[in-house]
Amino acid sequence: MSYKRFPKTSLDSRGNCIINSAPSGVQEFSSEHKPWGWDCVSRTAPRACAFRALLAQLRSSRSRSFLHPATVEGPLRILILTLPHGAAHQRASKALRAALLEIQPDLVVEVVDALGHCTPWFRAYYNSYQIPLRYWPSLWGWIEGVQHESPSTGPGWLYRRGARPLFRFMRDFDPDVVVATEVGLCELASMHKRISRAKFRLAGVELMDFNQAWVQPEVDLYLCTHQDLATELAAAGAQSSAIVTTGQPIDPVFSRLPDREAVRARLGLESDSPVLLVLFGGAGFGRPRLILSELAKVQCTFQLVVITGKNPRMEAAVQALCHAIPGSRVLGWVDNIHEWMVAADVMVSKPGGATLAEGLACGLPMLAVDPLPGNEQRTCQWIEKWGSGVWIKNLAELAPTIGRLLARQEELESLRARARSLARPRAAYDAAEALLNPQRV
After folding, report:
1. Between the N and C ends of the chain, which has fewer C-beta atoms within 10 Å?
2. pLDDT tens profile 337-384
3. 35 preceded by cis ω (within 30°)?
4. 203: three-class secondary structure by DSSP
5. What CATH number has the domain bearing residue 146?
């Protein structure tokens, strides 16, 4: 069902700002609908509020007569807030946007870098975690652990000051739905909604990254990766009726995977030899020399594919290192990662949430290496609990683990079967449906 947008404010006979009910024929989100609602109860506000509402209407690029709201209709406006760092946030945002527009093409869906709309000094503050992460990982692990259990990821006064330009952008965009793909962005959106008394619906997309600060009273919907993380959210105080387990939104192409044998033939891979896929993330980050030196110790025959991402220096270094490994291939950035995952038997990678979700969609078990302190280490614990891979706590364990899995096909097939059972290839569509059709969830 399509949902059409109607103005949320108009003026009464005294010039006060009021909240309008839905016009006849337009589906209204009701608080009776679960897991979330759209409060359409009329309220009055001071005359200053009416003046600000009038200015906002005049600034809007869309021509509408808010004096006669019943005659005004338009597409639902959805704002997705993401970050420039961390590929998982960007990939989930793009996947969700693609699914939303495929389901309902007349939507207005914008994916924006939220930090790009904040003050420069606030961006520097927000990104400062990279300093201890690079030079003192144990310190960052302690800081992240404290944040993980705290009701806020930072000082409220600092967030309010640093995000003022973002709040102005959100006010001018005038969204009906705001989707936050990171816990700090969820806090900022909650803060803006609370301070401005905005009526947009707020959804948080948990990307294998539970934090206590996700639990905010202004959040109307939580889209969770797995039932275990949904249980954590509920235990932390989130309303159970607002939690929906959809899986992590991934590119819709993962719901239409090609045949494995056909893909291997197209990629130039042998059909009768196992394929080991090694990933260093979109940015090309990791310890390739140590990993490849361990892979050279594997006694079994296999085909090696290494993807270094957008890091030409690492690609060149890996090319030189792979000369000692027969049957190896080195690639930089690729646009068909789903094909390489379908073709592979085992994946060696850092435990990023997006990479894990995409691998599960392809039935590809992960050998998780070099997790960052905090969230990635917790993801490794989930991998072990779910039985969808192996956490390589010491790189000296990598070669023996690969050798064992390639020699014992029944163990490898067990991991692949478990990965397939956890797959949510239509997660982006399920998340989009939850946003557009809350009463059906």
Report:
1. N
2. 999 999 999 999 999 889 999 999 999 999 999 998 888 899 999 999
3. yes
4. strand
5. 3.40.50.2300
Helices 312-321 and 288-295 meet at what angle, rounded to 10? 30
One domain, residues 85 and 198: yes
Q: Please state, in angstroms and as integers, the Cα–Cα distance from residue 425 to each residue in 75, 256, 342, following that order.
A: 27, 8, 13
Which two structure tokens, joined as six digits, stand for 165? 């330009």
Radius of gyration of the chain (CA): 24
Reported as type and span, the H/E element at residue 44 is strand 44-45
- Shared-domain flag, residues 82 and 224: yes
CA 376, 382, 388: angle at the middle one, nearest 5? 110
Adjacent-strand bridge partners of 244: 223
* 393 and 436 co-located in one domain: no
Residues of the chain where predicted confidence (pLDDT) is lower than 50: 1-51, 53-72
Give the Cα separation of 331 and 78 in Å (integer): 36
Report the C-alpha gap between 167 and 172 in whole angstroms: 9
CA distances from 109 to 75, 99, 105, 376 (A): 10, 11, 10, 30
* Domain end call among 48, 74, 100: 74
What's the domain count of the chain?
A: 3
**Could you please report the per-residue DSSP string of 145-174?**
HHHHHSS-SS-HHHHHHHTHHHHHHHHHH-
Please tell me the predicted confidence (pLDDT) of residue 94.
95
pTM listed for this prediction: 0.80
CA distance 241 to 87: 29
Residues 6+ apart with CB under 8 A from 73: 4, 5, 6, 23, 26
Amino acid 398 reads L
Is the CB of residue 114 less than 8 Å from the CB of residue 166? yes
Q: What is the distance between the alpha carbons of residues 234 and 245, in angstroms, rounded to a whole number?
A: 12
Question: What ranges in 197-226 are assigned the alpha helix state H?
Answer: none
pLDDT in tens, 68-109: 333 336 789 999 999 987 678 889 999 999 999 999 999 999
Q: How far is the CA of 364 from the CAs of 79, 272, 390, 417, in angstroms?
A: 33, 17, 12, 9
Question: Do 108 and 216 sit in the same domain of this protein?
Answer: yes
Edge to edge, the sheet with strand 243-245 lists 108-113, 77-82, 177-180, 201-205, 221-224, 243-245
Nearest partner of 355 among 329, 388, 330, judged by Cα:
388
Mutual angle of helices 353-361 and 87-103, in 10-degree steps: 50
